Protein backbone atom coordinates (compact mmCIF):
# COMPACT_ATOMS: atom_id res chain seq x y z
CA UNK A 1 0.00 0.00 0.00
CA UNK A 2 1.40 3.41 -0.85
CA UNK A 3 0.21 6.99 -0.67
CA UNK A 4 1.49 10.56 -0.68
CA UNK A 5 1.72 12.84 2.34
CA UNK A 6 1.82 16.48 1.24
CA UNK A 7 3.44 18.74 3.83
CA UNK A 8 3.35 22.54 3.96
CA UNK A 9 6.74 23.50 5.36
CA UNK A 10 7.81 26.79 6.87
CA UNK A 11 11.04 28.18 5.39
CA UNK A 12 14.28 27.23 7.13
CA UNK A 13 12.49 25.28 9.84
CA UNK A 14 11.27 21.81 10.78
CA UNK A 15 7.79 20.30 10.62
CA UNK A 16 6.92 17.25 12.67
CA UNK A 17 4.96 14.63 10.70
CA UNK A 18 4.75 11.84 13.29
CA UNK A 19 0.92 12.05 13.49
CA UNK A 20 0.53 11.81 9.70
CA UNK A 21 2.79 8.73 9.59
CA UNK A 22 0.90 7.11 12.50
CA UNK A 23 -2.30 7.78 10.62
CA UNK A 24 -1.02 6.05 7.46
CA UNK A 25 -0.14 2.97 9.50
CA UNK A 26 -3.49 3.00 11.34
CA UNK A 27 -5.63 3.34 8.22
CA UNK A 28 -3.78 0.46 6.49
CA UNK A 29 -5.12 -1.93 9.11
CA UNK A 30 -1.76 -3.70 9.00
CA UNK A 31 -0.45 -5.26 12.20
CA UNK A 32 3.33 -5.59 11.82
CA UNK A 33 5.82 -4.33 9.30
CA UNK A 34 7.87 -1.38 8.13
CA UNK A 35 6.77 2.04 6.93
CA UNK A 36 9.03 3.71 4.36
CA UNK A 37 9.06 7.47 3.75
CA UNK A 38 10.66 8.97 0.64
CA UNK A 39 10.80 12.73 0.09
CA UNK A 40 10.72 13.62 -3.62
CA UNK A 41 13.01 16.64 -3.25
CA UNK A 42 16.72 17.42 -2.95
CA UNK A 43 16.54 20.64 -0.89
CA UNK A 44 14.39 19.31 1.95
CA UNK A 45 14.99 16.10 3.88
CA UNK A 46 13.90 13.83 6.72
CA UNK A 47 15.21 13.05 10.17
CA UNK A 48 14.18 11.24 13.34
CA UNK A 49 15.02 13.30 16.41
CA UNK A 50 13.96 14.24 19.91
CA UNK A 51 10.55 15.90 19.86
CA UNK A 52 10.25 16.76 23.57
CA UNK A 53 12.28 19.98 23.68
CA UNK A 54 11.92 22.28 20.64
CA UNK A 55 15.41 23.65 21.38
CA UNK A 56 16.80 20.41 19.94
CA UNK A 57 15.54 21.04 16.41
CA UNK A 58 16.55 24.71 16.75
CA UNK A 59 20.11 23.62 17.54
CA UNK A 60 20.13 21.04 14.71
CA UNK A 61 19.30 23.81 12.24
CA UNK A 62 21.89 26.18 13.72
CA UNK A 63 24.59 23.55 13.41
CA UNK A 64 23.63 22.83 9.79
CA UNK A 65 23.78 26.57 9.00
CA UNK A 66 27.20 26.91 10.58
CA UNK A 67 28.63 23.78 8.95
CA UNK A 68 27.15 24.41 5.50
CA UNK A 69 27.49 28.18 5.10
CA UNK A 70 25.74 30.13 2.35
CA UNK A 71 29.05 31.81 1.57
CA UNK A 72 30.36 28.62 -0.05
CA UNK A 73 31.91 29.34 -2.50
CA UNK A 74 29.59 27.37 -4.80
CA UNK A 75 29.20 27.14 -8.58
CA UNK A 76 25.48 26.29 -8.40
CA UNK A 77 24.09 29.70 -7.38
CA UNK A 78 21.37 30.39 -9.97
CA UNK A 79 18.54 29.47 -7.59
CA UNK A 80 19.79 31.69 -4.75
CA UNK A 81 22.36 31.49 -1.94
CA UNK A 82 20.23 29.08 0.12
CA UNK A 83 19.89 26.49 -2.67
CA UNK A 84 23.29 24.75 -2.76
CA UNK A 85 23.50 24.60 1.07
CA UNK A 86 20.04 23.00 0.96
CA UNK A 87 21.33 20.22 -1.32
CA UNK A 88 24.32 19.58 0.96
CA UNK A 89 22.15 19.55 4.09
CA UNK A 90 19.86 17.06 2.36
CA UNK A 91 22.83 14.85 1.45
CA UNK A 92 24.06 14.58 5.06
CA UNK A 93 20.59 13.96 6.52
CA UNK A 94 18.00 11.61 4.89
CA UNK A 95 15.99 11.39 1.69
CA UNK A 96 14.23 8.33 3.09
CA UNK A 97 13.46 6.75 6.44
CA UNK A 98 12.16 3.34 7.50
CA UNK A 99 10.38 2.77 10.79
CA UNK A 100 9.12 -0.53 12.19
CA UNK A 101 5.60 -0.92 13.61
CA UNK A 102 3.75 -3.59 15.57
CA UNK A 103 0.13 -3.78 16.74
CA UNK A 104 -0.47 -0.89 14.37
CA UNK A 105 1.85 1.39 16.40
CA UNK A 106 5.22 2.85 15.41
CA UNK A 107 8.10 1.24 17.32
CA UNK A 108 9.82 4.56 17.84
CA UNK A 109 11.55 5.30 21.14
CA UNK A 110 9.96 7.48 23.82
CA UNK A 111 11.42 10.74 22.52
CA UNK A 112 11.63 10.06 18.80
CA UNK A 113 9.64 12.19 16.38
CA UNK A 114 9.71 12.24 12.57
CA UNK A 115 10.55 15.60 11.00
CA UNK A 116 10.74 17.25 7.60
CA UNK A 117 13.72 19.61 7.42
CA UNK A 118 12.98 22.53 5.09
CA UNK A 119 16.39 23.83 4.03
CA UNK A 120 15.15 26.59 1.69
CA UNK A 121 14.25 30.03 3.06
CA UNK A 122 10.80 29.99 1.48
CA UNK A 123 7.83 27.87 2.57
CA UNK A 124 7.22 24.89 0.29
CA UNK A 125 4.72 22.15 -0.40
CA UNK A 126 6.74 18.91 -0.06
CA UNK A 127 5.68 15.45 -1.22
CA UNK A 128 6.55 12.28 0.69
CA UNK A 129 5.81 8.82 -0.71
CA UNK A 130 4.68 6.44 2.04
CA UNK A 131 5.01 2.69 1.42
CA UNK A 132 4.00 -0.05 3.87
CA UNK A 133 5.68 -3.45 3.92
CA UNK A 134 4.50 -6.56 5.74
CA UNK A 135 7.00 -8.24 7.99
CA UNK A 136 8.20 -11.63 6.82
CA UNK B 1 9.82 -11.58 12.20
CA UNK B 2 11.06 -8.92 14.59
CA UNK B 3 13.01 -8.83 17.82
CA UNK B 4 15.06 -6.50 20.00
CA UNK B 5 18.85 -6.50 20.33
CA UNK B 6 19.88 -4.84 23.57
CA UNK B 7 23.43 -3.48 23.46
CA UNK B 8 25.57 -2.33 26.36
CA UNK B 9 27.60 0.55 24.94
CA UNK B 10 30.74 2.12 26.33
CA UNK B 11 30.59 5.90 26.59
CA UNK B 12 31.86 7.88 23.63
CA UNK B 13 32.89 4.77 21.74
CA UNK B 14 31.71 2.22 19.20
CA UNK B 15 30.40 -1.31 19.68
CA UNK B 16 30.39 -3.78 16.82
CA UNK B 17 27.13 -5.75 16.55
CA UNK B 18 27.78 -7.72 13.36
CA UNK B 19 27.67 -11.11 15.18
CA UNK B 20 24.33 -10.28 16.82
CA UNK B 21 22.80 -9.31 13.46
CA UNK B 22 24.19 -12.45 11.80
CA UNK B 23 22.65 -14.46 14.60
CA UNK B 24 19.20 -12.88 14.07
CA UNK B 25 19.34 -13.80 10.39
CA UNK B 26 20.55 -17.34 11.13
CA UNK B 27 17.89 -18.12 13.75
CA UNK B 28 15.09 -16.89 11.45
CA UNK B 29 15.87 -19.73 9.04
CA UNK B 30 15.17 -17.31 6.18
CA UNK B 31 17.14 -17.72 2.98
CA UNK B 32 17.04 -14.37 1.17
CA UNK B 33 15.86 -10.93 2.11
CA UNK B 34 16.69 -7.76 3.98
CA UNK B 35 17.40 -7.17 7.65
CA UNK B 36 16.38 -3.77 9.03
CA UNK B 37 17.89 -2.29 12.20
CA UNK B 38 16.25 0.64 14.00
CA UNK B 39 17.82 2.21 17.08
CA UNK B 40 15.19 3.63 19.44
CA UNK B 41 17.35 6.56 20.57
CA UNK B 42 18.42 10.01 19.34
CA UNK B 43 21.83 10.26 21.02
CA UNK B 44 23.29 6.99 19.72
CA UNK B 45 23.25 5.83 16.12
CA UNK B 46 24.29 3.17 13.61
CA UNK B 47 26.89 2.95 10.87
CA UNK B 48 28.47 0.40 8.56
CA UNK B 49 32.23 0.85 8.43
CA UNK B 50 35.56 -0.90 8.08
CA UNK B 51 36.07 -3.36 10.93
CA UNK B 52 39.59 -4.53 10.11
CA UNK B 53 41.63 -1.67 11.62
CA UNK B 54 40.29 -0.22 14.92
CA UNK B 55 42.00 3.08 14.05
CA UNK B 56 39.19 3.68 11.55
CA UNK B 57 36.44 3.92 14.16
CA UNK B 58 38.79 5.93 16.39
CA UNK B 59 39.24 8.46 13.58
CA UNK B 60 35.49 8.52 12.83
CA UNK B 61 34.81 9.52 16.44
CA UNK B 62 37.60 12.13 16.44
CA UNK B 63 36.20 13.74 13.31
CA UNK B 64 32.68 13.81 14.79
CA UNK B 65 34.04 15.47 17.94
CA UNK B 66 35.90 18.09 15.96
CA UNK B 67 33.01 18.83 13.60
CA UNK B 68 30.30 18.84 16.28
CA UNK B 69 32.02 20.57 19.23
CA UNK B 70 30.57 20.55 22.73
CA UNK B 71 31.15 24.32 22.87
CA UNK B 72 28.22 24.89 20.51
CA UNK B 73 26.73 27.31 21.44
CA UNK B 74 23.50 25.34 21.99
CA UNK B 75 20.17 26.15 23.64
CA UNK B 76 19.48 22.51 24.60
CA UNK B 77 22.01 22.11 27.42
CA UNK B 78 19.93 20.77 30.33
CA UNK B 79 21.16 17.19 29.87
CA UNK B 80 24.85 18.14 29.80
CA UNK B 81 27.36 19.42 27.23
CA UNK B 82 27.58 16.06 25.43
CA UNK B 83 23.83 15.78 24.78
CA UNK B 84 23.17 18.22 21.94
CA UNK B 85 26.32 17.13 20.05
CA UNK B 86 25.00 13.55 20.44
CA UNK B 87 21.74 14.50 18.70
CA UNK B 88 23.62 16.20 15.83
CA UNK B 89 26.00 13.25 15.42
CA UNK B 90 22.98 10.94 15.30
CA UNK B 91 21.34 13.11 12.65
CA UNK B 92 24.34 12.94 10.28
CA UNK B 93 24.87 9.19 10.74
CA UNK B 94 21.99 6.63 10.82
CA UNK B 95 18.98 5.83 12.97
CA UNK B 96 18.33 2.78 10.80
CA UNK B 97 20.21 0.48 8.44
CA UNK B 98 19.13 -2.15 5.94
CA UNK B 99 21.40 -4.98 4.88
CA UNK B 100 20.67 -7.66 2.27
CA UNK B 101 21.27 -11.35 2.96
CA UNK B 102 21.31 -14.54 0.87
CA UNK B 103 21.79 -18.18 1.86
CA UNK B 104 21.31 -16.96 5.41
CA UNK B 105 24.47 -14.80 5.22
CA UNK B 106 24.78 -11.01 5.25
CA UNK B 107 25.81 -9.64 1.86
CA UNK B 108 28.21 -7.16 3.39
CA UNK B 109 31.53 -6.46 1.74
CA UNK B 110 34.78 -7.99 2.96
CA UNK B 111 35.61 -5.17 5.37
CA UNK B 112 32.14 -4.01 6.40
CA UNK B 113 31.06 -4.26 10.03
CA UNK B 114 27.90 -2.97 11.72
CA UNK B 115 28.49 -0.58 14.62
CA UNK B 116 26.54 1.24 17.31
CA UNK B 117 27.96 4.73 17.85
CA UNK B 118 27.50 5.82 21.47
CA UNK B 119 27.66 9.62 21.39
CA UNK B 120 27.05 10.20 25.12
CA UNK B 121 29.94 10.13 27.60
CA UNK B 122 28.25 7.56 29.82
CA UNK B 123 27.72 3.89 29.07
CA UNK B 124 24.15 3.08 28.03
CA UNK B 125 21.84 0.17 27.35
CA UNK B 126 20.60 0.76 23.78
CA UNK B 127 17.67 -0.97 22.09
CA UNK B 128 17.66 -1.90 18.41
CA UNK B 129 14.54 -3.27 16.69
CA UNK B 130 15.46 -5.94 14.15
CA UNK B 131 12.96 -6.72 11.37
CA UNK B 132 13.43 -9.32 8.64
CA UNK B 133 11.82 -9.02 5.22
CA UNK B 134 11.56 -11.68 2.55
CA UNK B 135 12.82 -10.78 -0.87
CA UNK B 136 10.11 -10.46 -3.55
CA UNK C 1 14.83 -10.78 -6.59
CA UNK C 2 18.37 -9.56 -6.15
CA UNK C 3 21.32 -8.84 -8.39
CA UNK C 4 24.62 -6.96 -8.50
CA UNK C 5 25.28 -3.73 -10.36
CA UNK C 6 29.00 -3.30 -10.97
CA UNK C 7 29.97 0.34 -11.49
CA UNK C 8 33.26 1.67 -12.84
CA UNK C 9 33.82 4.90 -10.93
CA UNK C 10 36.14 7.76 -11.75
CA UNK C 11 38.39 8.82 -8.87
CA UNK C 12 37.10 11.57 -6.61
CA UNK C 13 33.95 12.04 -8.66
CA UNK C 14 30.32 10.95 -8.98
CA UNK C 15 28.71 8.45 -11.33
CA UNK C 16 24.97 8.53 -11.98
CA UNK C 17 23.37 5.08 -11.91
CA UNK C 18 19.69 6.02 -12.32
CA UNK C 19 19.40 4.19 -15.68
CA UNK C 20 20.88 0.98 -14.24
CA UNK C 21 18.43 1.06 -11.32
CA UNK C 22 15.48 1.76 -13.64
CA UNK C 23 16.61 -1.20 -15.73
CA UNK C 24 16.65 -3.53 -12.70
CA UNK C 25 13.09 -2.53 -11.86
CA UNK C 26 11.93 -2.90 -15.48
CA UNK C 27 13.43 -6.34 -16.00
CA UNK C 28 11.86 -7.66 -12.77
CA UNK C 29 8.40 -7.16 -14.27
CA UNK C 30 7.24 -6.02 -10.81
CA UNK C 31 4.54 -3.37 -10.64
CA UNK C 32 4.81 -1.76 -7.20
CA UNK C 33 7.34 -1.93 -4.40
CA UNK C 34 10.68 -0.75 -3.16
CA UNK C 35 14.15 -1.11 -4.64
CA UNK C 36 17.03 -1.32 -2.17
CA UNK C 37 20.63 -0.51 -3.09
CA UNK C 38 23.54 -1.56 -0.88
CA UNK C 39 27.13 -0.64 -1.73
CA UNK C 40 29.60 -3.24 -0.47
CA UNK C 41 32.33 -0.71 0.32
CA UNK C 42 33.27 1.79 3.04
CA UNK C 43 35.15 4.35 0.94
CA UNK C 44 32.45 4.95 -1.67
CA UNK C 45 28.81 5.70 -0.98
CA UNK C 46 25.39 6.53 -2.41
CA UNK C 47 23.24 9.64 -2.58
CA UNK C 48 20.10 10.93 -4.26
CA UNK C 49 20.62 14.44 -5.56
CA UNK C 50 19.73 16.90 -8.28
CA UNK C 51 20.86 15.60 -11.66
CA UNK C 52 19.91 18.59 -13.82
CA UNK C 53 22.93 20.86 -13.21
CA UNK C 54 26.33 19.09 -12.93
CA UNK C 55 27.53 22.00 -10.76
CA UNK C 56 25.46 20.53 -7.92
CA UNK C 57 27.51 17.35 -7.64
CA UNK C 58 30.71 19.37 -8.12
CA UNK C 59 29.75 21.53 -5.13
CA UNK C 60 28.77 18.48 -3.04
CA UNK C 61 32.26 17.06 -3.55
CA UNK C 62 33.95 20.39 -2.79
CA UNK C 63 32.02 20.72 0.46
CA UNK C 64 32.95 17.16 1.47
CA UNK C 65 36.63 17.90 0.74
CA UNK C 66 36.55 21.07 2.81
CA UNK C 67 34.69 19.52 5.73
CA UNK C 68 36.66 16.27 5.79
CA UNK C 69 40.22 17.41 5.04
CA UNK C 70 43.01 15.01 4.15
CA UNK C 71 45.20 16.74 6.75
CA UNK C 72 43.23 15.11 9.56
CA UNK C 73 45.16 14.29 11.71
CA UNK C 74 44.25 10.60 11.39
CA UNK C 75 45.70 7.40 12.81
CA UNK C 76 44.50 5.25 9.90
CA UNK C 77 46.89 6.43 7.18
CA UNK C 78 48.41 3.20 5.82
CA UNK C 79 46.23 3.22 2.69
CA UNK C 80 47.03 6.83 1.78
CA UNK C 81 45.85 10.31 2.76
CA UNK C 82 42.55 9.97 0.87
CA UNK C 83 41.48 6.75 2.64
CA UNK C 84 40.34 7.91 6.08
CA UNK C 85 38.50 10.94 4.64
CA UNK C 86 36.77 8.46 2.29
CA UNK C 87 35.48 6.46 5.28
CA UNK C 88 34.18 9.61 7.00
CA UNK C 89 32.49 10.85 3.81
CA UNK C 90 30.85 7.44 3.46
CA UNK C 91 29.62 7.58 7.06
CA UNK C 92 27.86 10.94 6.59
CA UNK C 93 26.29 10.00 3.25
CA UNK C 94 24.68 6.56 2.55
CA UNK C 95 25.74 2.94 2.34
CA UNK C 96 22.22 2.04 1.25
CA UNK C 97 19.20 3.70 -0.36
CA UNK C 98 15.59 2.65 -0.80
CA UNK C 99 13.41 4.06 -3.56
CA UNK C 100 9.71 3.34 -4.15
CA UNK C 101 8.37 2.43 -7.59
CA UNK C 102 4.92 2.04 -9.15
CA UNK C 103 3.84 0.94 -12.63
CA UNK C 104 7.42 -0.23 -13.02
CA UNK C 105 8.75 3.35 -12.71
CA UNK C 106 10.84 4.88 -9.93
CA UNK C 107 8.82 7.37 -7.84
CA UNK C 108 11.71 9.81 -7.70
CA UNK C 109 11.04 13.54 -7.95
CA UNK C 110 11.58 15.49 -11.15
CA UNK C 111 15.19 16.38 -10.42
CA UNK C 112 16.31 13.38 -8.39
CA UNK C 113 19.10 11.16 -9.69
CA UNK C 114 20.89 8.25 -7.99
CA UNK C 115 24.66 8.64 -7.67
CA UNK C 116 27.69 6.66 -6.55
CA UNK C 117 30.16 8.93 -4.75
CA UNK C 118 33.72 7.72 -5.27
CA UNK C 119 35.72 9.16 -2.38
CA UNK C 120 39.10 7.62 -3.29
CA UNK C 121 41.42 9.34 -5.76
CA UNK C 122 41.75 6.25 -7.94
CA UNK C 123 39.09 4.79 -10.21
CA UNK C 124 37.41 1.70 -8.75
CA UNK C 125 35.05 -1.09 -9.66
CA UNK C 126 32.25 -0.84 -7.07
CA UNK C 127 29.59 -3.47 -6.33
CA UNK C 128 26.01 -2.60 -5.42
CA UNK C 129 23.53 -5.26 -4.30
CA UNK C 130 20.05 -4.52 -5.67
CA UNK C 131 17.05 -6.09 -3.90
CA UNK C 132 13.41 -5.68 -4.93
CA UNK C 133 10.55 -5.88 -2.45
CA UNK C 134 6.85 -6.15 -3.21
CA UNK C 135 4.60 -3.62 -1.57
CA UNK C 136 2.24 -5.02 1.06
UniProtKB/TrEMBL annotation, chains A, B, C:
Family: Belongs to the UPF0047 family.
Matching NCBIfam families: TIGR00149_YjbQ
Superkingdom field: Bacteria
Protein name: Secondary thiamine-phosphate synthase enzyme YjbQ
Xref: InterPro entries: UPF0047_YjbQ-like, YjbQ-like_sf
Organism whose genome encodes this protein: Hyphococcus lacteus
Amino acid sequence: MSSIISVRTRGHSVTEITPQVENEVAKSGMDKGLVHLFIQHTSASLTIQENADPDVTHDLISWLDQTVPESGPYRHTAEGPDDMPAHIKSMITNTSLIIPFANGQLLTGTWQGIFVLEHRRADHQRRIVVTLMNEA
